[in-house]
Amino acid sequence: MKQIVPISLTSPPVSTHLEFHTQVNKYLLQATAAALHVEAQAAQYAALLEQEAAIVNRPSAQRYTQQLADADLRRDHGAGVLMNIIKAQVRSLDNEKKTAALQLKSIIDSYRNVGDQSYMKETAQLRGLVEALRSAGNAPLVTVLGLDAEVDLLEEANTAFEELHRLSQADAQQRQALEAIDTRELRGRVDACYQQIVLLVNAFAIASPSDALNTFIDSVNGLIYRTQQEDNHSHSTGDGSTPDPGTDTPEPEPEPEEPGGDEGEGGSPL
After folding, report:
1. What angle do CA 124, 128, 130 make, to 5 degrees?
2. Residue 85: what are its φ and ψ, rounded to 5°?
3. How far is CA 107 from its chain centroid?
4. Whole-prediction pTM
5. pLDDT tens for residues 219-254?
6. Which one of 21, 42, 61, 158 counts the least CB within 10 Å of its CB?
7. CA-based Rg of the chain, rounded to a whole angstrom?
């Protein structure tokens, strides 16, 4: 009769631990839980593995950090171009443009240091700036200076940043949830569920053997053998080989000297 052999799953690193159970679960799905008589355990096993995979594959740094910085720089540039054009037109020789620029300058002065603000504060301020420039009294002045497209682009850049920031908040919430999981405790639950599956499979292999059970047992035993080999290899010597305990390599005996040799030819060099 075939039986799944025991294996210690406390020593492998978390990635190896996950891969072992992932492979077992793949064999389980191929055989079907019904054929192995582990329907209840199979569902729990898959759910626990999904949690462990999320922990193993969680990013080491927030994925949106650089994207947020780039999007923030883009809207900073947009706001800077818009404000600089307005300030430059204050000196315009065109009286209509000069008058429009002077009136708009009183608006943009309130947003002078907008690029130095925190992300959320800058988002709110740029939204207010766009709304002010599009108000009934200021919109015609913006048109006089030919800045309608610049205002539209600034709004698009600010909206894009706001959406990215919203996504980063959701990502941060997910990371916090993953970091709150006790990895060791979860590994213990995965292993316990696996042991329940092994007990049932081994029991049915004795009481009611089948091709599905035998194939599953052979597959898992092969996986156990390979996992143990790799675990032993990780503790081997630096050259990748494990010395045979109790076997000493004899040191080579020195070769006898040639009698009457000429040290100028074939003798021991200095």
Report:
1. 120
2. -65, -45
3. 44
4. 0.52
5. 999 999 999 888 776 555 444 444 444 444 444 444
6. 61
7. 36
